Amino acid sequence: MNTSSPVTASAATTRSLKWRVVDITVASVIGVASSLIYWLAALAYGPISVLDSFIPGLWGVINGLWLFAAPLALIIVRKPGAAIYAEVVAAILESLLGNSWGGTATFLTGLVQGIAAEVVFLAVAYKVWNLWITVLSGTVAGLACWGYTFFTNLQAIDWNGPYGAMNLITTLISGAVFAGFFVWWLYLGIAQTGALDHFESGRDVRAKATGATRERA
Amino acid sequence: MGSRIEIKNWSYRYPLNDAWAVEDLTLNVAAGEKVLLTGRSGWGKSTVLQAIAGILGSADEGGESRGSITIDDTPALQARGRVGLILQNPESQVIFARVQDNATFGGENLGVEREEILTRTEEALHTVDLDAEHGISPQRLAQHLSGGQTQRLAIASIMVMRPDVIICDEPTANLDPDGVQCVVDAIADAARQTGATLLVVDHNVQAWDGIVERRIALGEQVDFEDYAGRYASTRPHGPKALEAQNLSFGYAGEPLSYPLTTHFHTHEVTAITGVNGAGKTTLSLTLAGLLPALAGEVRVSDAIRADLPSAHPSDWDSHQLAERIQYVFQNPEHQFVTNTVLGEMESALRISHPELAKDEEELAYKAKERLAYYDLAEQQAQNPYSLSGGQKRRLTVACAIEAKPKILLVDEPTYGQDPRTWLTLVKMFAKLRDEGTCVITVTHDRAFIDALGARELVIPARTYDENHEDKDTRVDSPSRIVARLNPLTRFFTGLLVGLPLIISLDVVSASVALGAILVVLLALGFSPKKLALYTWPMLIGAAGSFLTVIIHNAQHDPVLASATAIRVLAMSAPAVVLVMGIDPTDLADAFVQKLHLSDRFVYAALAGFRLLPLLKEDLECIHQARTIRGLHTRSKFRQLFSDALSILILAVRRSTTLSLVMQARGFGADVQRTLVRISRTSALDWFAYALAVAIPLLSLGVAYYSGSMNLFGNLI
């Protein structure tokens, strides 16, 4: 056993899609932390929520905030199913704590949104990890969120009427902004602290940063 | 039986690091031998111990290792589960909510037979004095244990694994003196009973006398006792700076200790000491004005108060506070407010040098100069979170000092610090005191108190009927029948009963369903009051959906709006009422045993749930840190973004530690896990499912025959 086992960046490209324990705990805790952040968001958003019914689209603008756990977990952990897992963990935790969206129903919402966010990365065989794919994932999660609401609670309103269209547009934008750009910003922010050095995703960011510093020097 | 540990020319380098964390270490420990490694820090002790436990050095971590570590000739990575690891921080080693579930976890992961696990658990909990004899039920919530008890719980769970090797990473560093001896004794008993080889890293050499057979010195050897009195003050203390008058402190109206009356002076260091749980940190936060006093008052001197209308720090705004009082949190990561080291220092200088606020260039120049003074110049462009432990501590203390407060409070400054940082901190505090600052520190570190010749203020723990058992009784559901259902049944019947209603949007089916659901819930024993308590947010949601439909439906149809609102209630009420009070552990067991979901994913999620209260505490610390750093006046949304980032950083850190702890207990190995808790279903569960299907079918049937069926509303 007197061998050296260097693992360099090039060796890491043949990476495994198998989940390590640290992948599972990090994805699960991102779900847990997200439910805490959702709760904070609800506090910040609470005062204006009463206006929802009167201003079409207002509800959509903010919707994306509740979608970020799925893409974030996936771009950090880079394992198939991470988006669904994190979002479902967040949803189950929320339903056990009790929230205003109806207990177990949160589980279904979470599942639908997680699948939507996941599908985008599945389509590129979990090989592309950049801002634009993340924004696309957030947008598709937004689409799912909109579709779910109109399929369940808002059947009485024409989904293709002005209110539905307005909400669709705002929810898509909101998904792109909060579950896309914001998620990417969070990912870079977390990676820069060195907290993700156990992950290829984190090393990518840090290697670039140190490379840039060295070039400057 | 004990195993031989052989470390041969072993080196390890973390990913993205040029320097080796451990270089060319060779060490042999014979089977059954009991060895103490001394030397406080600086030789990569945690790295080595994790490698011996087989939880560091696998290829996909991106690190690099050389040489070998073997346990009886098996490479350590393949011997995972044979080595039990006890870490410094007791809290981080709690994985599940209850005492028993933590104790059995390692045995379950190793696939030990169920009866055997139960026998071993009983024995182990008895050995570490966490049994009925000591008033602790196996169902006690682990969060209600003291630090020393929590550490002993970690020892018990290691014992259940019957390890060949037990390794301990400064197991007593976090404990008050009373807790230390119990933990040392428990480790000695564990090693004796299991016959395991024992390898302890600790600087508290005396505590291990008579237990270890061999001592090995590694790294820097510093005898802190040599510094006693060396940095004591040469003059009497100055005038009063801060006073506590009959001060009662605690959380949620519950005082932690007896009311306190004392004075703190300028030119003085006061050390607040006392056993774990006496509320030392809470007291320090209350003195700093970051927590309200439960009773009594905290007053600053008139000199410090200056022109402010109130002498109570808790009445001041963030800026007034930051100019006068600074607080350094125990975890430096709670304290950071920018993403560079330079930014941290600039933020501190903005408080002490308001005139520099407009001159960015001058501010940066001054900040660089101050960083150089604290030997942090090279790190100025780095992210503060990415610094080493010692650098983080130095940076947070340096920033607090450079804000030029009149009063400085510091929580456990020397905790986990290497000798160099320790000495630097002693000098920093001595200088600050000699310049006239009132310094107050919470600490367990006797050598630190002696070196500074600090005044000691001992906080006694409040003696009260320690009856945590009351709080630990499980409240599964107000309905005795529901409490008897399998949690999975509760989870899915709540969903099932509402879901089919999606098919038709009409008042008839929604009302029939809601009526039937209410009758059933009342019959199950939920009082109307309880129902209202659980469902009021849904009432608001239902009212909101009524409004939305009546405004935006093409015909503004009040019937459709009513149907929507009633249906929202019918779908959400049972889903909320039935899940309230489900024990997450029971639900996880049911997911694994009844749905056959992957136990790795389910139990990692369950362990993640336990971090929620800790993350809430983190969030509170982050807010307090912003307040004390004079930054607590920002827009709600910016605050939300920075909160989100800070919480996620801490969450990732906590989950990385969690994965280490879980792996050290054999979690994730390719072994069929044993299930100690058994998830049961009975005929009652099938009846519940039948009822959950019958109610929506009945409602839709009534709607169909009364001709009011309205397929999917306007959707198709």
Topology summary:
The complex is a heterodimer of chains A (217) and B (716).
Chain A: H1 21-49, H2 58-63, H3 69-77, H4 82-97, H5 105-123, H6 131-152, H7 162-192, H8 200-216
Helix pairs in contact in A: 1-3, 1-4, 3-4, 3-7, 4-5, 5-6, 6-7, 7-8
Chain B: E1 5-13, E2 22-29, E3 34-38, H1 45-52, E4 64-71, E5 74-75, E6 83-86, H2 99-109, H3 114-127, H4 147-160, E7 165-169, H5 177-194, E8 197-201, E9 214-217, E10 240-248, E11 250-251, E12 254-255, E13 260-265, E14 268-273, H6 280-287, E15 295-300, H7 302-305, H8 318-324, E16 325-328, H9 341-352, H10 360-373, H11 389-402, E17 407-411, H12 419-434, E18 438-442, H13 446-452, E19 455-458, H14 468-472, H15 480-484, H16 487-496, H17 507-523, H18 528-552, H19 558-579, H20 584-593, H21 599-628, H22 636-664, H23 683-705
Parallel strand pairs in B: 3-8, 3-9, 6-7, 7-8, 14-18, 14-19, 16-17, 17-18
Antiparallel strand pairs in B: 1-2, 1-4, 4-5, 10-13, 10-15, 11-12
Helix pairs in contact in B: 2-3, 2-4, 3-4, 4-5, 9-10, 9-11, 11-12, 16-19, 16-23, 17-19, 17-23, 18-19, 20-21, 21-22
Protein name (chain A): ABC transporter permease
Pfam families (chain A): ABC_cobalt (PF09819)
Transmembrane segments (chain A): 21-45, 57-77, 131-151, 163-188
